[in-house]
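Translate structure to sequence.
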């Protein structure tokens, strides 16, 4: 009887001993992992929780702190590509259309569209030219970030209209739709029998900068905006890029040799590393021909809007 009791006790104490050994081993392994993490991996526990852990300063996504809001055909793509030459700037390459068409997809969706950043001091910029003319956008942007930096690149409104019209024309051509004629689309006759601009035709209304900026200024101050001269930018990008760097609070980093003039295209292209990037064929293509009479009429009809715009932004452009 006592022999059997002895055996049971020996078995029990061996089991206890083994359990303690296992616990001791596990604790030792855990301590080793902690030490390793602490000293070599900056305490990130990356292999334990992997994706769930937010690792500061490493491939994190953050919302843009600046938006190029427009204007359509003003030079928004070239401006975005050019500012991306700056070492502290990360850009969203495609137009997200978050604040106009994709708002219902939510902020997580928007955040996922952002590029990965590697350092906290990098800034993210997005461009969607449709933002400038969409009435819902200013309030939505303000609600997300009342300090958002807003960049508006404008261009001579008549040439912008012709450029916009040219794009609409070629889009319709591709879709085998009936083709518009600017002299017909652009004008209407009012009740008093006077000829006016057609306030329902987008290539026209997109050029009425005063109307759109007023909607933005219901939420933002003019100090939130940088107005870039698209005509100057096209001919001498560095001049306007220096203003953009300053506005974004960045050190001057873009150098003249990153801006390479392409004599065939008639435009500047951009060199980030060794590769030179020019804009696609839809930029800088030949405009649809428009008669001098239409150009003159448009110039006259835009005149009051231009003056109003200059007064609002406290800046003047030579758009004669
Ligand atoms: N460096 C460079 N390369 C190519 N194009 C340049 C450049 N700088 C300014 N531009 C002018 O940009 C105009 C197109 O404007 P956007 O990019 O805003 O167009 S869009 O609204 O995104 O479709 C485009 O207008 P169009 O010439 O009427 O096509 C260009 O004049």
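Result:
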């Amino acid at each position: 009887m006592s022999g059997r009791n002895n055996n049971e006790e020996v078995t029990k104490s061996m089991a206890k001993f083994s359990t303690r050994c296992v616990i001791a081993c596990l604790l030792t392994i855990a301590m080793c992992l902690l030490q390793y993490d602490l000293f070599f991996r900056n305490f990130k526990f990356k292999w334990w929780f992997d994706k769930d852990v937010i690792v500061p300063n490493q491939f994190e996504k953050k919302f843009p702190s600046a938006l190029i809001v427009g204007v359509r055909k003003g030079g928004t793509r070239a401006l975005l590509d050019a500012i991306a030459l700056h070492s502290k700037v990360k850009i969203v390459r495609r137009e997200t259309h978050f604040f106009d068409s994709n708002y219902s997809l939510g902020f997580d969706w928007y955040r996922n569209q952002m590029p990965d950043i590697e350092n906290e001091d990098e800034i993210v910029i997005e461009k969607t030219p449709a933002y400038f003319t969409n009435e819902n956008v200013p309030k939505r942007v303000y609600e997300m970030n009342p300090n958002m930096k807003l960049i508006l690149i404008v261009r001579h409104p008549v040439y912008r209209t012709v450029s916009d019209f040219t794009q609409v024309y070629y889009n319709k051509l591709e879709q085998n739709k009936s083709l518009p004629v600017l002299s017909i689309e652009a004008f209407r006759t009012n009740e008093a029998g006077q000829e006016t601009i057609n306030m329902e035709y987008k290539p026209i209304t997109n050029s009425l900068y005063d109307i759109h900026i007023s909607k933005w200024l219901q939420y933002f101050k003019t100090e939130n905006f940088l107005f870039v001269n698209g005509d100057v930018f096209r001919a001498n990008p560095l001049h306007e890029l220096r203003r953009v760097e300053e506005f974004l609070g960045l050190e001057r980093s873009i150098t003249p040799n990153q801006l390479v003039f392409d004599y065939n295209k008639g435009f500047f292209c951009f060199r980030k590393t060794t590769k030179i990037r020019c804009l696609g064929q839809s930029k800088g293509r030949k405009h649809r021909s428009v008669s001098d009479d239409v150009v003159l009429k448009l110039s006259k009809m835009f005149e009051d809007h231009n003056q109003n715009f200059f007064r609002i932004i406290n800046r003047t452009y030579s758009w004669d």
